[in-house]
Design a protein that fits this description.
The structure holds 2 protein chains of 2 kinds.
Chain A lengths: L1 H13 L9 E6 L2 E5 L13 E5 L14 H10 L4 E5 L2 H7 L4 E2 L4 H7 L2 E4 L8 H13 L2 E4 L3 E6 L2 H24 L15
Parallel strand pairs in A: 6-7
Antiparallel strand pairs in A: 1-2, 1-4, 2-3, 4-8, 5-6, 7-8
Helix pairs in contact in A: 1-6, 2-5, 3-6, 4-6
Chain B lengths: L8 E6 L5 E5 L2 H7 L2 H12 L13 E4 L14 E6 L6 E6 L3 H6 L5 E5 L6 E6 L2 E6 L8 H12 L4 E4 L2 H4 L7 E3 L3 E3 L4 H7 L2 E7 L9 H17 L1 H10 L4 H7 L21 H7 L1 E5 L9 E6 L2 E4 L3 H6 L9 H14 L3 H16 L12 H13 L4 H4 L3 H7 L8 E2 L2 E2 L9 H9 L12 H6 L13 H18 L11 H12 L5 H21 L11 H5 L14 H12 L9 H7 L7
Parallel strand pairs in B: 1-6, 7-12
Antiparallel strand pairs in B: 1-2, 3-4, 3-6, 4-5, 7-8, 9-10, 9-12, 10-11, 13-14, 14-15, 16-17
The chains are: A alpha+beta, B alpha+beta.
The complex binds iron/sulfur cluster.
The site of iron/sulfur cluster has 12 residues of chain B, from loops.
GO molecular function (chain A): aldehyde-lyase activity; metal ion binding
Protein name (chain A): Aldolase
GO cellular component, one term (chain A): cytosol
Chain lengths: 196, 597
């Protein structure tokens, strides 16, 4: 398990999807959750950075767990996910400040994710509001953006949740570049995904 | 500058003459030393004569609040008390939560200085800005609960009581001062200082409002700090659910949970005395300091009723440190210490030392590791100085030295060590060795970076880079202890927030760097006081066991504290010479050049 955390933690950092100390990863193992340590560097994870605690019930390891643990727990309890990746992809964050939903313009993005909802919350870090709102969205969508904060993606494996995170950032980079070019977008397929 | 946060007033009570006076505190003194530990050190270092007897008439007891006390900042309803310690001979401060500090402050006083010695037992009543001394012969001999109940019956429920138990009256060197029934100024023997002055209690009741300079900024910062308290699992889940016993399992798993007078570093049955087990089997409710959302204290069900549960350090000292793993006994021992007015840590470690001396055939008391009945009996004997308890009441250092076996006392500068084996936490070792009040974990709390990842996780086995970090932690702690704020809150809310809240409350512009500088000034003044009292670099050390005997088993096996290189670096980084004396340049820089040592 450590190897998976190290691989995807490092890739998230190297791909610019997280800053040095941001983001967190978790997996569900029955009624237990293994989550990255609060303040861990995802690019350099070690054994001591993986914290195991209860999915429902706290134990003493809770004081080492990521600040986002309550949101991860809520996602597991409200969805069929077995892995969660929380990241801070910059292009996606920038777009989330302007849009209520992100509709891919590129065909790969559209094929994979169709539409990414943007959720607004007053408190965004370790927040009860997100705990309440995110799971229902993640039942329908693979990945959700929290406005101005970051993405939460789910999967059966860490690799899967990592893939949605990586795709989201690609989608957003393409949107940014396209807007910067200021031309008319000729491919209108994306509008179909508004109702996704 | 007008006064906001502070009232700018000291109440001075001379017990020898009975004279009570009110004094102004200068604005510069307040802004330079802030309150709590800082202003307490300033008074003790300036007014307590060199080499005086800590239990004599010349020692002074300084109760100090801070500018945040009573201002509505979560975790900042605290107060401190300072004096020369009868246990260590060093400068000493200890702080506690509850309501007493707020009620003292709401009389319009930032500080209460007690000096002299009364001819007979008295208590001090401070009510709405008026102070008076009263005869307390009927309270002398009463335990903490009885004292509290009797005074509250007389003075009303809105009065908070800080008092001593029989241990303080009997001048036990590690007697505590207890406030609001169960809160303790535990360490270093402030209870004995009160006992020597024949002051049984201080009752405080007040209603003055603490003004805030910039309400808008204040409200915003409280909102911001609240966000972090809610988001951080330490303050939003770990402490509220398990209290400080949440640390038992964690530190035991790391192999740094000392057992049997630091002979071992892991306790096999730690789960039975952990926060998890206490929460499941005994917890009846949560309690905590006034206005704090964390409420980290546990109300426990026992066979005989309810009691406030032992904290992490007390569970350890009265448990595995004495080879004891029976939770009921630990809870009972903790309750007994609180009622008799004894510091749980020094009590447990001194008993643990006695048990090792027995084991080695050095001091025959019949008290062996794991002896639950013997431990409970020893606690009472210490408080009343009965039998062997008379020697134990002097603390582990004097006890072991009198047996010709000083190496078995687990103490630094006379203050018993706490629940962290520094062989597996190198920075804790340096923090213990250099602590100005002796073996205290809280002066630097290097377990934060070395085990809890606060502010960042560092390699606990490495001595490299620990000097600088320890210094920063010590300076910040001195500042936070002066505001005066709870260190648990500081695990989730950084000093930057405290600097901003302090500015909003007082109207004085404080930046983070100012808190570091004020902390450094306090630390150096405390050092100067200790140098004056005869302490030198030879006292910045640890018990030989921790320097020479590697941990035998578990995840920390094979390590000892590599103190020498860390200490050399520490002195250099502090701007002290190789003997640990602050350089004239450093003293000038901190405005301490006039202090004579
Ligand atoms: S965290 Fe605990 S000790 Fe600190 S102020 Fe809150 S209740 Fe008091």
């Amino acid at each position: 398990m450590l190897k998976d955390f190290q691989t995807f933690g490092r890739d998230l950092f190297l791909a610019g999807l997280n800053s040095s100390h941001s983001g967190n990863l978790s997996v569900r193992c029955g009624d237990r959750i293994v989550i990255t340590r609060r303040g861990a560097m995802l690019g350099h994870l070690e054994e001591r950075d993986l914290i195991e605690t209860g999915l429902d019930k706290n134990d003493s390891n809770i004081i080492l767990a990521s600040t986002e643990i309550r949101v991860h727990r809520a996602i597991y309890k409200g969805t069929a996910a077995l892995a969660v990746v929380h990241a801070h992809p910059v292009h996606a964050i920038a777009l989330s400040l302007l849009e209520d939903e992100i509709i891919p313009l590129d065909s790969e993005g559209a094929y994979l994710l169709h539409k990414i909802p943007v959720l607004s919350a007053e408190h965004t870090i370790g927040s009860q509001e997100l705990e309440e709102k995110l799971p229902s969205l993640l039942k329908e969508y693979k990945i959700v953006m929290v406005r101005g904060h970051g993405s939460f993606a789910t999967g059966q494996l860490l690799e899967e949740a990592y893939q949605w995170t990586s795709s989201l950032e690609n989608i957003c980079r393409i949107i940014h570049i396209t807007r910067a070019l200021k031309g008319e977008v000729k491919d209108k397929r994306s509008s179909k995904y508004k109702e996704w | 500058m007008g006064f906001c946060g502070w009232f700018g007033k000291t109440l001075r009570v001379n017990l020898s003459t009975g004279i009570i006076t009110e004094e102004n505190i200068g604005q510069k003194v307040l802004s330079d030393w802030i309150g709590g530990r800082g202003i307490g050190a300033w008074v003790v270092a300036g007014e307590v004569p060199a080499c005086c007897d800590p239990l004599g008439e010349e020692n002074k007891l300084v109760f100090a609040t801070g500018p945040l006390t009573g201002a509505g900042v979560p975790g900042a309803g605290r107060f401190s008390a300072s004096a020369k310690s009868p246990l260590t001979g060093t400068i000493l401060d200890s702080n506690a939560g509850g309501r007493w500090g707020i009620r003292l402050k709401k009389n319009g006083y930032d500080m209460l200085i007690i000096e002299g010695t009364s001819a007979g037992p008295v208590y001090l009543k401070i009510e709405e800005g008026t102070a008076s001394l009263h005869e307390a012969g009927d309270l002398w001999g009463a335990d903490v609960r009885e004292t509290n109940d009797k005074l509250k019956d007389k003075l009303g429920n809105e009065t908070s009581i800080a008092c001593i138990g029989p241990a303080g009256e009997n001048l036990v060197k590690f007697a505590s001062v207890m406030n609001d029934g169960h809160r303790a100024l535990g360490r270093g023997g402030l209870g004995a200082v009160m006992g020597a002055k024949k002051l049984k209690a201080v009752a405080a009741k007040g209603s003055r409002k603490v003004e805030v300079a910039n309400k808008e900024k204040f409200d915003f910062m409280i909102y911001e700090a609240g966000k972090w308290l809610k988001a951080n699992p330490i303050t939003s889940q770990g402490l509220p659910e398990f209290g400080t016993p949440v640390l038992v399992k964690l530190f035991n798993a790391l192999g740094v949970f000392p057992t049997r007078n630091f002979q071992g570093s892991q306790y096999p049955d730690a789960l039975n005395i952990s926060g998890e087990t206490i929460a499941e089997l005994m917890t009846a409710g949560r309690k905590g300091c006034y206005g704090c959302p964390v409420q980290c204290a546990r109300l426990l069900k026992t066979k005989t009723g309810t009691t406030l549960g032992p904290e992490y350090e007390s569970i350890w000292a009265l448990g595995p440190e004495c080879g004891i793993g029976d939770l009921d006994t630990i809870v009972e021992a903790n309750h007994l210490c609180n009622q008799l007015g004894l510091d749980t840590v020094s009590t447990g470690v001194t008993i643990g030392c006695t048990m090792e001396l027995e084991e080695k055939g050095i001091f025959n008391t019949g008290l062996s590791f794991g002896d639950t009945t013997g431990m409970l009996r020893a606690i009472k004997q210490i408080a009343y100085r009965e039998g062997d308890g008379d020697l134990l009441a002097e603390g582990s250092r004097r006890l072991a030295e009198r047996c010709g076996a000083g190496q078995y006392a687990m103490q630094v500068k006379g203050l018993e060590l706490t629940a962290y084996d520094p062989r597996g936490l190198q920075g804790m070792g340096l923090g213990f060795a250099t602590s100005n009040r002796g073996g205290c974990h809280l002066r630097a709390y290097m377990a934060g970076p070395e085990a809890l990842g606060v502010p960042k996780m560092v390699d606990r086995f490495s001595a490299g880079g620990k000097a600088g970090l320890t210094i920063t932690q010590q300076n910040v702690s001195a500042a936070i202890d002066s505001l005066i704020a709870c260190r648990f809150i500081n695990l989730a809310v950084s000093e930057e927030y405290f600097a901003r809240i302090l500015s909003a409350v007082t109207g004085v512009d404080y930046q983070t760097q100012d808190l570091h500088r004020i902390g450094e000034r306090i630390w150096n003044l405390e050092r100067l006081f200790n140098l004056r009292e005869g302490f030198d670099c030879s006292h910045d050390t640890l018990p030989p066991r921790l320097l020479e005997e590697p941990i035998q088993e578990g995840p920390s096996s094979g390590s000892v504290v590599e103190l020498k290189p860390m200490l050399e670096e520490y002195y250099r980084f502090r701007g002290w010479n190789e003997s640990g004396v602050p350089s004239p340049g450093k003293l000038r820089e901190l405005g301490l050049e006039d202090f004579k040592c």
